[in-house]
Write a sequence for this structure.
């Protein structure tokens, strides 16, 4: 392993929250820098990885990384769901958090060079895909068509609106949005994201899809993509599991023979299907 | 050495364990394979007792409330505070709430302090009435207030009947012992409206409608006579009033039993025959939350007596206590109706005996339990409480009006914060003491770690307090107290620390005749006849009002969870058991009500759909949890902690807790 | 090989005690329990005692331990993280071969995968291991089925075999050889290997029939578990028997699942605690929010037996995850210790009836 890419394994490194941004209801982005300059310097990630984040006096949780390995500010986007994430939401700029990682495999960009890419996201499923989208746009020449299909319950629930605007400004990036129910001022599609995907003219050959979202949406989208002819081994997703260590020891994230923290979190649908557990 | 022998202090099974101690901290726990009851098993609670014992969340000094805040004080100042405040309050205006987790020595001394020093007879555990009712029924029926059988011989029993409750959750290792016996060939039957794990493991599961177990048991007895399956020889040798009982039984009509319980006659007949034809038969029922009411216990007793299964080897009626020293607390007389050793409080001679023994004047007026003392219209002014939790908080408004609340506890909790004065006390790993499990097994637990600097055992604090109030008690150790107990309580007369140190418990009666304890009640040795117990209202049918049924067609019952029960303040200080509880709470963050698959589909209710449970006086909104475990027509709300007990149930909880047969008529509506 | 006279054993232990904290089996007379324990009184070491009820796992992977301590000052926003020194030289004396095998599995799992577990490593670093051949099997043992006994093959510093009067000693490491030399043990003659072999053969032949018969079935069960060809009804039956106590995981020499919690202390410090956990618990896979991918209890049981027997898991240990100690069967409030699960799978294959 490249020494610069060595993750922080056991003892959390202290980081300072430098900025906080509200994304959607109950979801906030926390921008951070690592306190030790040499660590800040050496901290390198791959798209699709995650970190273990300590909220002091509350605990530690696993969170996928939304930022790109290059030219992007380090941050995490976190929904308030439990005791630890609620404590994180209490923090202010200047407060400290602890960081271990980055852990996990990341997206296989080398293997998919030259392919078309379809991103299908539902709600906060866009968080782990954001890093990948930025990476792909930064290396636009390496890929064919790049398409984002994104749906949420309502327009308020759409994540990263600023980033999306930036991406739309780049060339050759197609975007399609949908929300579950009509609302005033919304001129885009209405309905579930799988229905939208069904309607679209999507590439099939030399195409990979990255799908992320809640279990119901995930399964519906997979069905649609397979109907269109996209192969199971060309559909990627990142799995989320309860994790305690991040380094393949605590076994909380074990699914059958795989450990999400070291073998994942990025899997092809073909792999996921054979794991024998719910998504 | 880092592993020390001890006894688990959670439920009334009293499993043997090894606590791993390093650097004066409990670092782990391991089951004890040589233990005669648990044989090397522990349940999820027992496997995590060290998490509780290492908590830093302790009361470490006497505290006096001053202007709404607690201030640390010396023992001297704290004792002065209590003696000054209590002097002006007459005994009958004081009540004592003991803890079923305290040792026999502590509970004995608490009773002696209440009756002998404060001169009050208002002393009890909390509302856990099931144990008292069970003791009363068994005393009347066979003169023995606890398990008449033994778990040691369970694996040889032919027939095992589990009535009510959820034993696998309440006392998992006793349930395991039953399960082992079943696998070794015993016939296992369960009577329970819910499809509990025990029911799933049983060969026969009878599911009477809520509130009809009593009726079913009477039906079983009737079948025994109809089929001529009674043991006439046994009845004439060992029972006193079988003729009048048999006469009374004639009023029970099987058709009505079938109609009321919803159970087919063939099943009732088959169970009755199995019971009659077995050589040895045991029945188990829980006495905590979900205990049976006294008439149901009486019906169960009568059934077993009729079948000739009381006072026989390998047979018996086995009440199972939910908390570690619940039985011991009653043995020590922590009850308004029993003096130490179950001496009836209505018997003048017993009072005289006690006065002589304690060398102090005692008041005879009939005491009440704390629940009654705190209900409206009562005039108590002071309350002494040992390690209790929010359970009693339903009386919070009444409690807040008291002039004096003295709290003895190891851990802080909402109840403690209401106190005027708090005394710290040692945890059970920090001192010596004996605990009596469901099986009557008295087990000695030795001190394993030192308490925090200023923390004294309860018996020491009580001794100082008695001295400050002019009673010169002279105990130097808990062993001194046990010596005294053995002189007063006949069942304990042969018990000494010396004996208990070299044995894994002894089952009372332990006396001159039985120096190594007693396995089970034997009719030949009892020295008296057994009595059938007369039902309060002979031949009573179903106490279920047709009118109410029209508007409130569902029967709501409450139950307990594996991980959380009663003293939730205990479980809150663990990690894994707390997480397991939270796992359910996260799925149903606002609590849930269980409904049968049949009712759910009939009413078009989906999993997790918000519903309203409406009772006559109030209603509550909960998420529906569709379950295969409950009967159509029944709803079930788990008895957890505050967050899970809806406000409207709080008002009913006293009744719901009393027994398994109690239910609340409600209706269910979809919430919009 | 060398001879260790009975009276030299005391010397050996004393010698080790100069450098190491001594752990070994002791017998509690009142409860008739054999406990693998920290021995403060060295005379309590009992190498003739039965297999201890507890495996030595707790020494390297404690039930409950602080792995970090930190102090967070909300006012100044200052954090101080303190590493806890877990390094302590320990000698484990009289390890049964199943337990030594278990320890080697833990080694491979904690030290040999993608990442090294630093906390385990700290406990493991300065260890002296003396194994003890089982000259007769105990009632619950089936190590002959799982290739982990009755004698140790590797992983020890010294290996002892009781011959009825004295011990035959074999060195498994340089450390072990040095100690043999220091004690000046007499070299055993060429007949020693044959003697040891005879003792082991004798032990193997006295195993209970259930162990001997199960040998082939364990590998067939392994096959079925790996391929997933086990009927849901078998898992449902097993699920009904499960009391969800976690004991099978806690007593297993190779089970290593753990939980991590931050516990705040009175002193405004926080301990990061690592505690044993079990995949049989519902909350184990529970995620914040309300998704639990593994809900029914039979799913969770399924997971553990997969871990103990499947090929894919065996790759991590370089052997099956089960070492045949039989403890899971003894602690189970239900009836689903590993040998029984193999029996249930066997019944499914052969169509035998359950009764």
């Amino acid at each position: 392993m490249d020494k610069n890419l060595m993750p922080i394994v056991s003892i959390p490194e202290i980081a300072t929250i430098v900025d906080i941004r509200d994304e959607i209801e109950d979801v906030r982005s926390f921008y951070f820098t690592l306190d030790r300059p040499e660590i800040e310097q050496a901290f390198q990630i791959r798209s699709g990885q995650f970190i273990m984040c300590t909220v002091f006096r509350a605990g530690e949780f696993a969170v996928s990384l939304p930022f790109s390995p290059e030219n992007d500010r380090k941050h995490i986007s976190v929904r308030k769901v439990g005791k630890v994430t609620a404590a994180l939401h209490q923090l202010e700029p200047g407060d400290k958090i602890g960081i271990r990682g980055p852990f996990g495999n990341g997206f296989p960009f080398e293997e998919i060079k030259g392919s078309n890419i379809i991103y299908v996201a539902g709600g906060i499923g866009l968080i782990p895909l954001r890093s990948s989208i930025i990476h792909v746009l930064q290396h636009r020449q390496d890929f064919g068509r790049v398409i984002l299909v994104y749906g949420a319950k309502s327009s308020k629930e759409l994540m990263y609106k600023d980033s999306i605007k930036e991406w739309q400004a780049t060339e050759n990036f197609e975007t399609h949005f949908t929300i579950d129910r009509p609302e005033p001022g919304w001129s885009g599609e209405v309905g579930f994201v799988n229905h939208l995907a069904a309607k679209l003219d999507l590439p099939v050959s030399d195409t990979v899809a990255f799908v992320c979202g809640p279990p119901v949406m995930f399964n519906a989208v997979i069905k649609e993509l397979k109907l269109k002819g996209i192969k199971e081994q060309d559909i990627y997703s990142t799995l989320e599991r309860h994790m305690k260590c991040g380094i393949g020891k605590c076994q909380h994230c074990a699914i059958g023979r795989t450990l999400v923290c070291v073998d994942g979190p990025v899997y092809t649908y073909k792999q996921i299907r054979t794991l024998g557990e719910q998504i | 050495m880092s592993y020390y022998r001890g006894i688990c202090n959670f439920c009334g099974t009293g499993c043997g364990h090894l606590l791993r101690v390093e650097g004066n901290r409990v670092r782990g726990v391991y089951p004890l394979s040589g233990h005669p009851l648990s044989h090397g098993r522990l349940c999820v609670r027992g496997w995590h007792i060290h998490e509780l014992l290492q908590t830093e969340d302790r009361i470490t000094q006497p505290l006096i409330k001053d202007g709404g805040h607690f201030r640390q004080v010396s023992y001297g100042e704290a004792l002065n505070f209590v003696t000054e405040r209590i002097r002006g309050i007459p005994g009958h205006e004081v009540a004592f709430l003991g803890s079923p987790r305290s040792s026999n020595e502590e509970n004995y001394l608490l009773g002696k302090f209440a009756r002998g020093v404060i001169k009050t007879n208002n002393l009890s555990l909390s509302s856990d009435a099931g144990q008292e009712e069970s003791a009363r029924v068994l005393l009347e029926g066979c003169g023995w207030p606890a398990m008449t059988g033994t778990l040691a011989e369970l694996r040889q029993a032919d027939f095992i009947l589990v009535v009510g409750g959820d034993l696998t959750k309440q006392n998992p290792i006793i349930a395991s012992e039953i399960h082992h016996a079943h696998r070794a060939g015993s016939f296992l039957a369960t009577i329970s409206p819910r499809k509990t794990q025990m029911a799933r493991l049983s060969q026969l599961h009878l599911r009477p409608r809520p509130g009809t177990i009593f009726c079913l048991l009477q039906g079983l007895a009737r079948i025994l006579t109809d089929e001529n399956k009674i043991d006439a020889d046994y009845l004439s040798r060992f029972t006193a009033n079988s003729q009048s009982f048999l006469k009374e039984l004639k009023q029970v009509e099987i058709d009505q039993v079938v109609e009321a319980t919803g159970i087919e006659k063939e099943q009732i007949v088959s169970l009755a025959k199995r019971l009659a034809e077995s050589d040895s038969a045991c029945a188990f029922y829980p006495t905590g939350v979900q205990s049976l009411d006294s008439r149901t216990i009486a019906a169960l007793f009568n059934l077993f007596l009729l079948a000739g299964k009381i006072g026989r080897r390998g047979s018996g009626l086995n009440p199972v206590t939910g908390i570690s020293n619940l039985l011991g607390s009653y043995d020590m007389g922590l009850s308004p109706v029993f003096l130490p050793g179950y001496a009836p409080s209505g018997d003048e001679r017993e009072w005289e005996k006690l006065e002589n023994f304690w060398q102090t004047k005692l008041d005879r007026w009939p005491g009440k339990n704390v629940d009654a003392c705190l209900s409206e219209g009562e005039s108590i002014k002071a309350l002494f409480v040992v390690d209790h939790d929010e359970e009693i908080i339903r009386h919070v408004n009444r409690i807040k009006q008291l002039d004096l609340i003295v709290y003895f506890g190891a851990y802080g909790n909402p109840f403690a914060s209401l106190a005027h004065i708090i005394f710290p006390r040692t945890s059970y790993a920090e001192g010596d003491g004996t605990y009596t499990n469901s099986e009557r097994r008295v087990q000695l637990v030795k001190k394993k770690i030192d308490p925090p600097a200023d923390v004294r055992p309860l018996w020491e604090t009580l001794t100082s307090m008695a001295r400050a109030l002019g009673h010169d008690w002279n105990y130097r150790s808990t062993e001194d107290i046990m010596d005294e107990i053995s002189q007063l309580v006949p069942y304990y007369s042969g018990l000494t620390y010396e004996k208990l140190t070299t044995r894994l418990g002894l089952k009372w009666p332990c006396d001159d005749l039985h120096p190594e304890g007693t396995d089970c009640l034997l009719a030949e040795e009892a020295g008296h006849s057994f009595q059938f117990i007369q039902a309060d209202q002979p031949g009573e049918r179903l106490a279920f009002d047709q009118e109410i049924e029209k508007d409130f067609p569902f029967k709501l019952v409450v139950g307990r969870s594996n991980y959380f029960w009663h003293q939730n303040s205990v479980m809150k200080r663990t990690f894994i058991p707390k997480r397991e509880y939270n796992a359910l709470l996260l799925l149903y963050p606002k609590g849930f009500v269980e409904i049968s698959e049949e009712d759910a589909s009939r009413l078009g209710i989906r999993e997790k759909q918000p519903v309203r449970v409406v009772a006559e006086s109030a209603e509550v909104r909960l998420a529906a949890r569709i379950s295969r475990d409950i009967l159509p027509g029944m709803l079930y709300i788990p008895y957890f902690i505050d967050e899970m007990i809806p406000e409207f149930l709080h008002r009913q909880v006293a009744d719901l807790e009393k027994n398994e047969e109690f239910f609340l008529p409600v209706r269910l509506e979809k919430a919009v | 090989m060398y001879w260790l006279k009975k009276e030299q054993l005391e010397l050996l232990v004393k010698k080790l005690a100069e450098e190491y904290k001594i752990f070994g089996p002791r017998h509690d007379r009142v409860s008739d329990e054999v406990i693998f324990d920290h021995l403060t009184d060295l005379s309590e070491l009992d190498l003739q005692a039965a297999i201890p009820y507890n495996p030595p796992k707790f020494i390297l992977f404690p039930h409950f331990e602080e792995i970090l301590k930190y102090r967070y000052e909300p006012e100044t926003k200052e954090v101080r993280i303190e590493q806890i020194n877990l390094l302590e030289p320990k000698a484990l004396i009289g390890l049964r071969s199943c337990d030594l095998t278990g320890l080697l599995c833990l080694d491979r799992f904690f030290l040999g995968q993608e990442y090294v577990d630093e906390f385990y490593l700290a406990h493991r670093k300065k260890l002296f291991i003396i194994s003890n051949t089982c000259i007769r099997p105990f009632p619950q043992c089936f190590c002959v089925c799982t290739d982990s006994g009755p004698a140790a093959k590797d992983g020890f510093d010294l290996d002892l075999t009781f011959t009825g009067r004295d011990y035959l000693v074999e060195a498994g490491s340089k450390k072990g050889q040095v100690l043999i030399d220091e004690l000046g043990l007499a070299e055993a003659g060429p007949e020693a290997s044959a003697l040891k072999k005879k003792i082991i053969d004798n032990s193997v032949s006295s195993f209970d029939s259930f162990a001997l018969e199960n040998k082939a079935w364990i590998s067939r069960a392994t096959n079925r578990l790996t391929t997933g060809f086990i009927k849901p009804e078998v898992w449902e039956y097993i699920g009904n028997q499960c009391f969800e106590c976690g004991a099978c995981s806690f007593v297993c020499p190779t089970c290593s699942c753990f939980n991590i919690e931050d516990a705040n202390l009175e002193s405004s410090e926080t301990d990061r605690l690592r505690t044993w956990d079990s995949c049989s618990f519902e909350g184990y896979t529970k995620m914040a929010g309300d998704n639990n991918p593994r809900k029914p209890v039979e799913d969770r049981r399924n997971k553990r037996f997969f871990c103990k027997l499947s090929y894919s898991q065996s790759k991590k240990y370089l052997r099956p995850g089960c070492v045949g100690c039989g403890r899971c069967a003894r602690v189970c409030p239900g009836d689903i210790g590993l040998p029984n699960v193999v029996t249930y799978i066997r019944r499914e294959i052969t169509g035998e009836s359950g009764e």
Observations:
- Chain C is about 40% helix and 20% strand.
- Residues 209-227 of chain C form the longest helix (19 residues).
- Chain C has a mean pLDDT of 90.
